[in-house]
Amino acid sequence: MLKALTASLILFSFTAFSAPKSELWAYWNSSNEANLQNVSHQSWQAFLDKYLVVEGDNTLVRYVRVSPNDKQQLKSYLSELAAIDPRTLNKAEQYAYWVNLYNAITVDLILDNYPVKSITKLGGLFSFGPWGDDVITITGQTLTLNDIEHRILRPIWNDPRTHYAVNCASLGCPNLQPQAFTSNNTEALLEQAASTFINSNKGANINGDKATLSSIYDWFAEDFEAQGGVIAHIAKYSPKLTGFAGKIDYDYDWALNKK
């Protein structure tokens, strides 16, 4: 009976999953455009250089090979970011700060719980993943991953390409980029990430009059409306969906992006 109840709760959590809305946390919506400070993301870049590998459509993380020292270095990097008040930075520097913070926290969560088959197994018994858990405190404000993505990045920048920047440690997610984001490379990385994802089978797979798109385009369809909708956005990076009027299904692979 207990096993059946547990299985039902897990199934409920999965089927009831819905993406959070974009809702601004106004506290973070300020900047100092005159500030030319560059936040160092060298520690994060060193981690990516050492443990990220490319296989087909995916970038994978060698979680099993991360040394105790490098795990500690990652935590130290997160502590360094947490000691910064991002509101004092200019907006371009802020964007890189939040994206790298989100991705590094996600990897750190997996490392703390490895081995695990999927990030959705983390969090409380009634949770679908760790996104609602408190993960870091900045300027006295405790944040979750949902806060960073849906209350800061999405509503402040209103750029649907943010969905290609943040990584949820899953095969179905747009790839963790091999380069740390900086104020100088953000635009190039966003364009590269968008094009790579859309032109992979996990982004948009066309078979005759049927298309299977990533569930991202279902969950966050409203984010693409300003660009004419999901199909128009995809067609900007690949002509395969230009004028597509067939049947569309959505799919997402929650398996861990491990090597």
From TrEMBL:
Database matches in InterPro entries: DUF547
Alphabetical keyword list: Signal
Signal keyword on record: yes
Xref: PANTHER family: ELECTRON CARRIER/ PROTEIN DISULFIDE OXIDOREDUCTASE, ELECTRON CARRIER_ PROTEIN DISULFIDE OXIDOREDUCTASE
Domain DUF547: 87-198
Pfam families in the record: DUF547
Signal peptide: 1-18
Originating organism: Vibrio barjaei
Protein name: DUF547 domain-containing protein
